[in-house]
Amino acid sequence: MNLKTLFLAPLLLASTAAAHAEAPNVVVSIKPIHSLVASIMQGIGEPALIVDGAASPHTFSMKPSSAVAIEKADIVFWVGHGMEAFLEKPLETLGEGAKRVALEEAPGLTKLEFREGGAFEAHDHGDDHDHGDAHAVAEGEDAHAGEHHHDGGFDMHLWLDPANAKAMATEIEKTLAAADPDNAATYSANLDKLNTRIDTLDGMLAETVAPIRDTPFVVFHDAYQYFEHRYGVKVAGSITVSPESLPGAARLTQIHEKIIDLGATCVFAEPQFEPKLVNVVLEGTKAKSGTLDPEGATIEAGPDLYFQLMEGIATSLKTCLSSSD
Q: Which residues, at least 6 apart from 61, have a Cβ–Cβ distance to it below 8 Å?
């Protein structure tokens, strides 16, 4: 290394550090949204994540470190109260000039009404896909389970439709560019790359699930309506309305009978929740079990998580449903 290089190296490092220091301090609520934000911030900075690891926003309790991160944030991205109710009070601690962005309000989103009680009645999805009488009846103790989680009136698992992911990404890019105009060109270029990647993903997912579209299955909770709407897969019902409220014996009996009546071939658990419930409803049926991970609990956070999450759902569906007799 010559003297000129020795002299310039510290200046270059200082310049790089300054550039990162000037990037907005961004905090994101959950992994799927964090993945989109991280993609758009690539080369500029890294957003912090609140619900990390295998934690679920449905049952999450704020940690002191997360509260401190929110207090210091310039921008907080979240889906909205219906998904992350635990964030309402912490967001009140945001400093003056800080911005909180509820992505449920992003322009261009497709929003599907929450299916009250977990009942999956016939829906007009704009295609030939028909659920017929496939639905899970919720009565008694389970009829209003998890209402506070869904009090926004529509299903909050918006990211499970890639078109919604693109709409949210556009809002993320717009917010970041306004807060950090010096890096606006990079945010814009990253958004273009992300949209292209999502379009490719969308086509691949449609191709993956095409062979099993008419094969009914049961899920742990009603989180997959957007995936169902986008790709025409046949969800027959859910074990529980919302993960905050576990089902009672009557509900489990109803689901067990529904699996038999409909010939549902797979029942899917989720990694964050008790798998014994799946075993209970499977007992005495010919249905198999699988796992779906709608929030990326088992996936490392980062730009690739969204794609791994969506590919994982499609692959799990095809693997379990294709192997059914």
A: 86
